[in-house]
Structure formats: structure tokens, C-alpha cells
Please model this.
Amino acid sequence: MISNKIKAHLALLSVNIVYGANYLVAKGLMPDKIEASALVFLRISGAGLLFLILKFFVKEQVKRKDIPRLALCGFLGVATNQFFSMNGLSLTSPVDAAIIITAMPIFTVIISYFLLKEPLTLQRILGISIGGIGAVLLIYIGNSGVGTGSLLGNIFVCINALAFAFYLVIVKPLMSKYKPVTVIVWTFLFGFIFMFPFCIEKLIHTDFNAFVTSNWISLFYVVVGPTFLAYLLNMFALQFVKPTVSSSYIYVQPAVAMILVGVIAYFVVNSQYKGDITITKLLCCTLIFCGVYLISSGQLRWFKKSNT
Model:
């Protein structure tokens, strides 16, 4: 019999493999088959409807005073996050996007310092500095013309990570008051409202008649996999492991993206991804990982001290 803790680790591994593969799957759809903003519309509305179905089994009301915070969560964690994530990915390399997103814990620590007054130790400052250098270098490399990287695309992905980091800090009080399904349904509702005027036109002009079977499979994967299913697995895992354990699995994403890109670049003649994996990018990846490790280990020690 497999223990719940092992199941939680398998769930987290699955979540981040799904996320890692999504960089390549979504990139394959954009922009030839569907514009990024149209894909954002389908992703938010599709996953939102699935979460709404789940909400029918969870009877819980939210207080009126929490509506503005939920609206802000929807704006940052769903609308802004998804808009810049997909539009950034459509412009840049899936490898660049997967590496940049791992800098999210760095943004979270900085935001927590200003909004939640969490301590900023020397170790955290060092981690922010090292990881920040790696992220800035990687974003700038997008301007080199090597591979499918893009400066603008990398900046968009960075904005995506920053928006989601703000969301993680702002949503924290709500997660302690309400069930996760209740919070996510409201955030997706507001996210849909904010996203609608910017994405509906692109959706209307999408030629779905040009889709072949593989395109529909990819679309189904993007809508269900890295949003709805991944969130459900995350909720299950967090019942049995600490959030620090959950966040550490983010390193799986660039590894999966690099492996898939490497396989395609090796086996496909004249692949657009040739040149996407370079020594410089690996160095930037290492700097970000080292920075996040310093921040994470510092947070863990502070958490243990505060509970003794």
C-alpha cells in the first residue's frame, strides 16, 4: 500500500512535469494555429467552468469585505498571469520561459518583505542578488538572436512571474479563511472578467476549422492539464506535505522543458529549437537555482525558529 505522503510527492512530480511539458505544447499552438490571447481566453474560461462544477459540491459563502481582495487575486493571479505567460511564451523560447519562472520565489520574498514585513536576512539578500543576476542575464540573452529567445517575450514571462508572486502573497489570508475551491472559483471569475475585453477579439478571429487532431489534443492538454488538473493535484499534495516541499518541485519544470526541446532539436531536421540550449543559459539557470536555494533554506530555518 502506497502511503499518502508518497502519493503527495508523486502528485507534485506529476504537476511540474505537466507544467514543464506545457511550455512546449502551448508553444506549438502559437501563433500559427491560435493567437496567445485567444488561448488565454480558452484556458481561463475552460478551467474556470471545471472549477465551477466542483464548487457545486462545496457550500461556502465569502464575506463581502473579502470581495475586493478576491478581485485583486483574479486580476494578478489569473488575468495578468495568464495573459503575459502565454503572450510571452508565444514570443520566446520554451526553455527561457521555464527557467525565468523559477525566479518566482525571489519575487515572493521581496514582496513579502514590503507587504507582510517578513524579515530580510543577509542570506536572503544574497540569494536575491545571485538569482536576480541570473534572471536579468537570461532575459537580456533573448536579444542575442540565438535560438527562439526574445527580449520582449522574456520580459513578458518575467511580468507573469512577478504578478503570480504578488498573487501568492495577497491570497495567503484568504486560503486560511476559505476552502481552496472557493478561493479559486472567485479568482477565476474575476480573472475572466478582467481578461474578456483583451482576448475576445482574438478568439473570434481564430480559425478552428484549420485545426487538425493533434491541435485539438494540444488545446485540451493546455486547458485541462496545467490549470485544472495541476491545481487539483497541488491541493491534494498540500494536505500531506509542507508548502516549502511543494515549491521545491518547481525545478522540475525547466528540466522537462530542456529535455523535450533537446529531443526535438536532435531528431527533427531544421528544428526551430536548435540553439535554444546553450552554456550561457545553463549558467543563468544555475545562478537562479542557487539564489532560490539560499532563500528557501533561509525561510525554512526562520520557520523552525519561530515555532520553537
The radius of gyration is 19 Å.
